[in-house]
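#structure-requests
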Amino acid sequence: MTSANGLLQELRERSDMVSPAERRIAEYIIDNSDSFVDLPMKQLADAADVSEATLIRFCRRRGFEGLPDFRIALAKELAIERAFLREPTELADPLNAHIDTLAGAAFNSITAAKSAISPDNLQQAARLLLMARRIEIVGMGGASANTAAEAVNRLFRLGLAARHTPDGYQQRMIAATLGEQDVMLIISASGELGLVLDSARIAKEAGAKLIAITRPSSQLESLVDIALTFEMRELANLLTPSSSRYGHLFVLDMLATAVAHTIGPDVVRRLLRVKETISGVITDSRNTPIGD
């Protein structure tokens, strides 16, 4: 089957390799891709000056069952183009302009998180984590999985039994083993990923408490006990990395700080012990972060 992300490109590149009738269909789709998604079959066939049977064959030759499947694939590609590919990338701009854009996006993401999440919510989440027997951290995809791994890194040194696996199926199985004394911390930029929602529902049914770092008004927010949410507006440019991960990391920093603040003086002694373990590994560990 033709890739959904390269359907229009494939039609452009192969327009001279099909029959005259199919070439007319391809040209019509390229010139009228938006209307092609919605027009009735007969109207499409008439507009391309072909029969309805030819239109169906055209779709099937590209690996689709018929016109409906072809339309769905085209609609997906158009949605991606509207969100990303039609946005000017301005590669001709100097590098410092791109760096300024990245810095601005990171700053905006962190500022949005700080403004949206209250200290009360952070303290409630911190108390749940401190009372937990086990903390399972869920995050999938590049940014969320990396933030989940960092959450383990931040929490274990505070004495919390936290762990993370990026495997979605294993997350479901682990969720089923949780109980009323356990907490699942979920990190998701969209709050709509099926595997993540499944794990959350399974953990909730098992009696675990749920905390989420996610987008407001998402399905995930409605499932959890405590939601740490902020609006994440991504730059519509494929060449620009996701800026929401800066916000996620900042929320994680705020949460870890809330945990440390709730623990009190004991946390200082624990962190000093951790620091001492690396003093013989790093030449000058006084001004380095704990764990490098």
